[in-house]
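Quick one: structure tokens for this chain, please?
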Amino acid sequence: MIYFIISIPVLLYVLIWSYFIIGATKKVISNHNKDQNDLSISIIVPFRNEKERIGPLLSSLDQLDSFACNLNIFFIDDHSEDKGLEQLMLWKNKTNKKVEILQLKELDEEGKKKALKKAIEQSKDEWIFTLDADSTISIDFLQEFKKEMTNNKEAYLLPVLEMSNGFFLSVIESYMLSVIALASAKNKKPLLANGTGLIFKRALFLKLDPYKENYHIASGDDIFLLEKITREEPDMLMPISNRKLIVYTDSPLTYKKMLNRSCRWVGKMSKSNLHLTRLVGLIVLICNLSIILTLIFQIIDNDFKVLWVVIASKLIIDVLLFTLAIKYYGNRQLILITPLVFLLYPIHLVCVMFNLLISDKIWKGRKI
């Protein structure tokens, strides 16, 4: 009886992952805008103490092909305490791109959401593309995006992946999260978004005003914007899987950094109203915990048949979904380490739970 109860979360997990697999394989029917005029777009980069990480982004923006685009780049300094602002000033004087550097100066002006809102209000362009300071994009990004634009869509979800030189568990996780975001959006039930992979119309943002009630929460700009879109303008959102539109970000170099980030994600998700996302997250957690419980009971019984069935079921469905991520985003060599990663993930989730119980969730020196 105990094994039957433990197996229920695993069965739910398999069903949900199957739903994602179906979604990921769907073809998005869209009416591409063949008469697209020059793209009017602002790239907005809020930053705080990013001097050591912003270099690759600046090089990426320098090389960006902005032909037939009215491109404006906004950097917004959120009370940085390093020399990042001076570094940006030097780059601005050298680049051929149109760049404006803003600052949050007032005591009541702090946080990523305030920075984004200020730059979006300052922008005069039709489209907004938010990027993090540790991100990079391809040289053809804007030209490829113009090809993907659709007449009746006002917001786009882009794939966001971590560089392969980071902590392996985190890199694999970024591929899984991206394909889940893609699949759920194709299924018309978007669960996830990444703040460095969103393009949307300025008018849509101003209409929704997604941060109005959550400026006091340091993190979560992406989740609160997704929440507003799915609630008020769900048909305006379109996911994109084009490899040339992948946004790459730094990967945590150590497990400790990955753990701290995971705790931050849980913190911001707990404050959102994306109930389906929270439900799926809960099932994922319980499923992974049930594997650990199964292991304990099987050791006591000295019989590992049920354990092998549970592990095999989860591993097969995980690998199938991850294979789709590789199909869309590339990097086939990652498949070789996926079995190890998916076996270690239950332990990671236990560490996240324990860390949440014993420490506050801090981001950029501020409590979430």
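The chain has a mean pLDDT of 90.
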